[in-house]
Amino acid sequence: MLPAIVIIDICGTLYASNTTMDFLECSFGSSKIYRLYRNISKTFCARVVNKLLLQVFSFDLIRCFGILFLRGKTKDEIKVMVDKFYSSFLKFRMQRESIEIVESYRKKGCRLVLVSATLDCVASKVAEELHILEYLSSELCYDKGVCLGKLSTDLLHNKRKALVKCGYLAPYEMTVSDNLSDFDLMSLSSASYIVSSCQKKKKWLKVIRDKHISNFKFLIVK
Fold first, then answer.
1. pTM over 0.85
2. How many domains does the chain have?
3. Segment 77-106 mean pLDDT
4. Residue 214 belongs to a domain with what CATH number?
Protein backbone atom coordinates (compact mmCIF):
# COMPACT_ATOMS: atom_id res chain seq x y z
CA MET A 1 0.00 0.00 0.00
CA LEU A 2 1.38 3.41 -1.01
CA PRO A 3 2.04 6.02 1.71
CA ALA A 4 -0.64 8.66 2.25
CA ILE A 5 -0.05 11.85 0.25
CA VAL A 6 0.40 15.26 1.90
CA ILE A 7 -0.02 18.26 -0.44
CA ILE A 8 2.09 21.27 0.55
CA ASP A 9 1.97 24.78 -0.91
CA ILE A 10 5.11 26.96 -0.89
CA CYS A 11 4.33 30.68 -1.23
CA GLY A 12 2.72 32.12 1.89
CA THR A 13 2.64 28.65 3.44
CA LEU A 14 6.20 27.45 3.99
CA TYR A 15 7.67 30.89 3.34
CA ALA A 16 6.29 34.39 3.88
CA SER A 17 6.99 35.24 0.27
CA ASN A 18 5.58 35.41 -3.22
CA THR A 19 8.62 33.45 -4.32
CA THR A 20 8.36 34.15 -8.06
CA MET A 21 8.11 37.93 -7.67
CA ASP A 22 10.64 38.06 -4.84
CA PHE A 23 13.08 36.00 -6.91
CA LEU A 24 12.71 38.42 -9.82
CA GLU A 25 13.08 41.39 -7.48
CA CYS A 26 16.27 39.99 -5.94
CA SER A 27 17.70 39.14 -9.35
CA PHE A 28 16.77 42.23 -11.38
CA GLY A 29 15.88 44.87 -8.79
CA SER A 30 18.86 47.06 -9.66
CA SER A 31 17.88 47.23 -13.35
CA LYS A 32 16.26 50.50 -14.49
CA ILE A 33 13.99 48.64 -16.91
CA TYR A 34 12.87 46.28 -14.14
CA ARG A 35 12.21 49.20 -11.79
CA LEU A 36 10.05 50.82 -14.49
CA TYR A 37 8.13 47.56 -14.92
CA ARG A 38 7.53 47.29 -11.15
CA ASN A 39 6.45 50.92 -10.85
CA ILE A 40 3.91 50.43 -13.66
CA SER A 41 2.71 47.08 -12.25
CA LYS A 42 1.98 48.71 -8.89
CA THR A 43 -0.31 51.38 -10.33
CA PHE A 44 -4.02 51.18 -9.59
CA CYS A 45 -5.00 50.52 -13.22
CA ALA A 46 -2.46 47.73 -13.65
CA ARG A 47 -3.58 46.03 -10.44
CA VAL A 48 -7.27 46.26 -11.40
CA VAL A 49 -6.65 44.79 -14.87
CA ASN A 50 -4.47 42.03 -13.41
CA LYS A 51 -7.11 41.15 -10.82
CA LEU A 52 -9.79 40.87 -13.50
CA LEU A 53 -7.58 38.65 -15.65
CA LEU A 54 -6.86 36.43 -12.65
CA GLN A 55 -10.54 36.11 -11.76
CA VAL A 56 -11.81 35.49 -15.29
CA PHE A 57 -8.93 33.69 -17.02
CA SER A 58 -6.61 32.62 -14.15
CA PHE A 59 -3.93 34.63 -15.98
CA ASP A 60 -1.39 36.76 -14.09
CA LEU A 61 -0.27 39.43 -16.56
CA ILE A 62 2.12 41.10 -14.11
CA ARG A 63 3.89 37.81 -13.44
CA CYS A 64 3.98 37.07 -17.19
CA PHE A 65 5.83 40.32 -17.92
CA GLY A 66 8.16 39.71 -14.97
CA ILE A 67 9.19 36.29 -16.25
CA LEU A 68 10.29 37.94 -19.52
CA PHE A 69 13.33 39.24 -17.63
CA LEU A 70 14.64 35.66 -17.51
CA ARG A 71 14.75 35.47 -21.30
CA GLY A 72 18.25 34.68 -22.55
CA LYS A 73 19.45 33.21 -19.26
CA THR A 74 20.80 29.67 -19.29
CA LYS A 75 19.64 27.00 -16.86
CA ASP A 76 22.99 27.19 -15.09
CA GLU A 77 22.75 30.98 -14.75
CA ILE A 78 19.23 30.73 -13.35
CA LYS A 79 20.34 28.08 -10.87
CA VAL A 80 23.08 30.41 -9.58
CA MET A 81 20.51 33.21 -9.28
CA VAL A 82 18.11 30.95 -7.36
CA ASP A 83 20.86 29.77 -5.00
CA LYS A 84 21.71 33.39 -4.21
CA PHE A 85 18.03 34.27 -3.77
CA TYR A 86 17.51 31.43 -1.31
CA SER A 87 20.62 32.06 0.78
CA SER A 88 20.23 35.85 0.92
CA PHE A 89 16.44 36.16 1.20
CA LEU A 90 14.11 33.18 1.15
CA LYS A 91 15.58 31.10 3.98
CA PHE A 92 14.99 34.05 6.31
CA ARG A 93 11.27 34.04 5.37
CA MET A 94 10.67 30.45 6.47
CA GLN A 95 7.49 29.94 8.54
CA ARG A 96 8.60 27.55 11.26
CA GLU A 97 5.11 26.52 12.35
CA SER A 98 4.27 25.26 8.86
CA ILE A 99 7.59 23.44 8.60
CA GLU A 100 6.90 21.70 11.92
CA ILE A 101 3.55 20.45 10.59
CA VAL A 102 5.25 19.08 7.47
CA GLU A 103 7.92 17.37 9.57
CA SER A 104 5.27 15.73 11.75
CA TYR A 105 3.77 14.08 8.66
CA ARG A 106 7.20 13.07 7.43
CA LYS A 107 7.69 11.19 10.71
CA LYS A 108 4.39 9.40 10.10
CA GLY A 109 5.80 8.04 6.85
CA CYS A 110 3.59 10.14 4.57
CA ARG A 111 4.51 11.01 1.00
CA LEU A 112 5.31 14.73 0.94
CA VAL A 113 4.57 16.57 -2.32
CA LEU A 114 5.22 20.27 -2.88
CA VAL A 115 2.57 21.71 -5.20
CA SER A 116 3.02 25.36 -6.12
CA ALA A 117 2.54 27.79 -8.99
CA THR A 118 6.04 29.15 -8.36
CA LEU A 119 8.78 28.66 -10.93
CA ASP A 120 10.31 25.20 -11.19
CA CYS A 121 13.80 26.56 -10.50
CA VAL A 122 12.57 27.93 -7.16
CA ALA A 123 10.47 24.88 -6.28
CA SER A 124 13.46 22.63 -6.98
CA LYS A 125 15.63 24.65 -4.59
CA VAL A 126 12.97 24.58 -1.86
CA ALA A 127 12.56 20.82 -2.29
CA GLU A 128 16.32 20.38 -2.03
CA GLU A 129 16.61 22.50 1.12
CA LEU A 130 13.66 20.81 2.85
CA HIS A 131 14.67 17.30 1.70
CA ILE A 132 11.35 16.74 -0.07
CA LEU A 133 11.72 14.42 -3.05
CA GLU A 134 8.59 15.28 -5.04
CA TYR A 135 7.29 18.59 -6.33
CA LEU A 136 4.99 20.01 -8.99
CA SER A 137 5.36 23.60 -10.15
CA SER A 138 5.08 25.96 -13.09
CA GLU A 139 7.80 25.23 -15.64
CA LEU A 140 9.96 27.70 -17.53
CA CYS A 141 10.26 27.15 -21.27
CA TYR A 142 13.77 26.58 -22.67
CA ASP A 143 15.30 26.19 -26.11
CA LYS A 144 18.70 24.46 -26.15
CA GLY A 145 19.16 25.27 -22.48
CA VAL A 146 18.29 28.97 -22.84
CA CYS A 147 15.18 30.40 -21.15
CA LEU A 148 12.57 31.87 -23.50
CA GLY A 149 11.06 34.10 -20.81
CA LYS A 150 7.74 32.27 -20.67
CA LEU A 151 6.13 29.22 -19.10
CA SER A 152 5.57 25.87 -20.73
CA THR A 153 3.36 24.78 -17.82
CA ASP A 154 1.48 27.06 -15.43
CA LEU A 155 0.04 25.66 -12.20
CA LEU A 156 -1.77 28.88 -11.28
CA HIS A 157 -5.29 27.65 -10.42
CA ASN A 158 -4.38 24.32 -12.09
CA LYS A 159 -2.98 22.31 -9.19
CA ARG A 160 -5.70 19.66 -9.08
CA LYS A 161 -5.42 18.95 -12.80
CA ALA A 162 -1.62 18.71 -12.54
CA LEU A 163 -1.85 16.31 -9.60
CA VAL A 164 -4.20 13.98 -11.46
CA LYS A 165 -2.08 14.15 -14.63
CA CYS A 166 1.01 13.10 -12.64
CA GLY A 167 -0.81 10.28 -10.85
CA TYR A 168 -1.28 11.88 -7.44
CA LEU A 169 -4.85 10.77 -6.91
CA ALA A 170 -7.27 11.73 -4.13
CA PRO A 171 -8.12 11.26 -1.37
CA TYR A 172 -5.14 13.01 0.19
CA GLU A 173 -4.07 12.68 3.80
CA MET A 174 -3.52 16.40 4.30
CA THR A 175 -3.34 19.71 2.43
CA VAL A 176 -1.32 22.56 3.90
CA SER A 177 -1.92 25.89 2.15
CA ASP A 178 -2.69 29.58 2.50
CA ASN A 179 -4.37 29.81 -0.93
CA LEU A 180 -8.11 30.36 -1.09
CA SER A 181 -8.01 28.70 -4.52
CA ASP A 182 -6.80 25.45 -2.93
CA PHE A 183 -10.21 24.76 -1.39
CA ASP A 184 -10.75 21.98 -3.95
CA LEU A 185 -7.66 20.12 -2.73
CA MET A 186 -8.79 20.59 0.87
CA SER A 187 -12.19 19.15 0.05
CA LEU A 188 -10.38 16.05 -1.28
CA SER A 189 -8.22 15.70 1.84
CA SER A 190 -8.87 13.87 5.10
CA ALA A 191 -7.70 17.00 6.93
CA SER A 192 -6.28 20.44 6.15
CA TYR A 193 -4.13 23.10 7.72
CA ILE A 194 -5.14 26.58 6.61
CA VAL A 195 -2.25 29.03 6.93
CA SER A 196 -3.79 32.46 7.36
CA SER A 197 -3.37 35.92 8.80
CA CYS A 198 -6.03 37.20 11.19
CA GLN A 199 -7.30 39.56 8.47
CA LYS A 200 -7.64 36.79 5.88
CA LYS A 201 -9.41 34.43 8.27
CA LYS A 202 -12.81 36.01 7.54
CA LYS A 203 -12.43 35.23 3.82
CA TRP A 204 -11.46 31.67 4.68
CA LEU A 205 -14.48 31.18 6.91
CA LYS A 206 -16.74 32.19 4.02
CA VAL A 207 -14.98 29.72 1.66
CA ILE A 208 -15.22 26.98 4.30
CA ARG A 209 -18.94 27.61 4.68
CA ASP A 210 -19.66 27.87 0.94
CA LYS A 211 -17.51 24.90 -0.11
CA HIS A 212 -18.35 22.69 2.88
CA ILE A 213 -14.74 22.11 3.90
CA SER A 214 -14.52 20.02 7.06
CA ASN A 215 -11.84 18.70 9.40
CA PHE A 216 -9.54 21.73 9.14
CA LYS A 217 -7.32 23.68 11.50
CA PHE A 218 -6.13 27.26 11.25
CA LEU A 219 -2.47 28.14 11.57
CA ILE A 220 -2.42 31.89 12.18
CA VAL A 221 0.68 33.72 10.96
CA LYS A 222 1.58 37.40 10.84
1. yes
2. 1
3. 98
4. 3.40.50.1000
The full DSSP string for the chain is -PPPEEEE--BTTTBSS-HHHHHHHHHHTT-HHHHHHHHHHTSHHHHHHHHHHHHHH---HHHHHHHGGGTT-BHHHHHHHHHHHHHHTGGGGB-HHHHHHHHHHHHTT-EEEEEEEEEHHHHHHHHHHHT--EEEEEEEEEETTEEEEEEEE--TT-HHHHHHHTT-PSPEEEEEE--GGGHHHHHTEEEEEEEE-HHHHHHHHHHHHHHT--SEEEEE--
Q: What is the pLDDT of residues 166-208, one digit of tens each?
A: 999 999 999 999 999 999 999 999 999 999 999 999 999 999 9
Domain holding 61, by residue range, is 5-220
